[in-house]
Specification:
The protein is of the alpha+beta class and about 280 residues long. It has 9 helices and 14 strands. Helices cover about 25% and strands about 35% of the residues. Strands 5, 6, 7, 8, 9, 10, 11, 12 and 14 form a 9-stranded mixed beta sheet that branches. A 5-stranded antiparallel beta sheet has the order 4-3-2-1-13.
Length: about 280
Amino acid sequence: MCKKLLLVMTAAALLLSMTACSGIRERIDGAATEPSEEKPVISEQSDSASASEPESEATEPAPAVDYDAQIAVLAANYALWVKNGEYDPYSYSVTDLDQNGRLEVIASACVGSGNFSYNDVWEVNEALDGLTQCATTIDESMQPDLTFVKETMGYYNETTGEYAYIFSDAARNGAAEYMLTTMAFTLSDGVLRTMQLAGMHQIYSPDSDEPTVSYYSGDVSLTEEEFLSIADTAFSGCEKYRLTLDWATFFPEEAAAMEEAAWLNTLQTLWKSFSLERE
């Protein structure tokens, strides 16, 4: 999300990023160990694992996920997540960010001059008959700018079982100053979290036509190349994915005029655009 104040990374955020899959500073300096060759447990069972099981113990295949039924649940509960009492347009997307087989609907807005972002996420409950709003540990001033992002990178951490997706939070202070924070955004056990990875600060001086630009991670200075590759550095050793999603944007009066059938069609289209593919 975008904020007016300079976004300063905390030491705690840096420490978390170091333990995600490997250390940021170690990777930048080239002193880290080789990336793990282990893969996330989302693929077919390995030959060695299947060979160790008795052949007589056949297991029942997991039931297929009925996403159409879940989309119907999202649509039936549209009054919970539709923002029709606001002044600014909201954008909506359908996802399965935590890859637990239960869909989420995201309501997101970047308002004003781009200084404020709002993100609400509702997930189909375990009984698959209703919705639960996801809790959040994210400060209002540090909401990622999700709206209109249609493609970004994701990383799977086998140790935590979490998927982290890379988004940014932009902020302006007039025309002369611009800040950008790169962060990892996760949904795990119904809770939204962010981890700040790096930042960029750009400011114009009255005495120069060229801005002064600095890059950093916590209190560590970075080069531009290190800043641009910070996600790969922070999550080196994790499985890398490409996240694709789409958004439908409505002004409040448009959203207020839509009923369940219209939302059902919209959500079905949005879900067809979602994908998470290994790089």
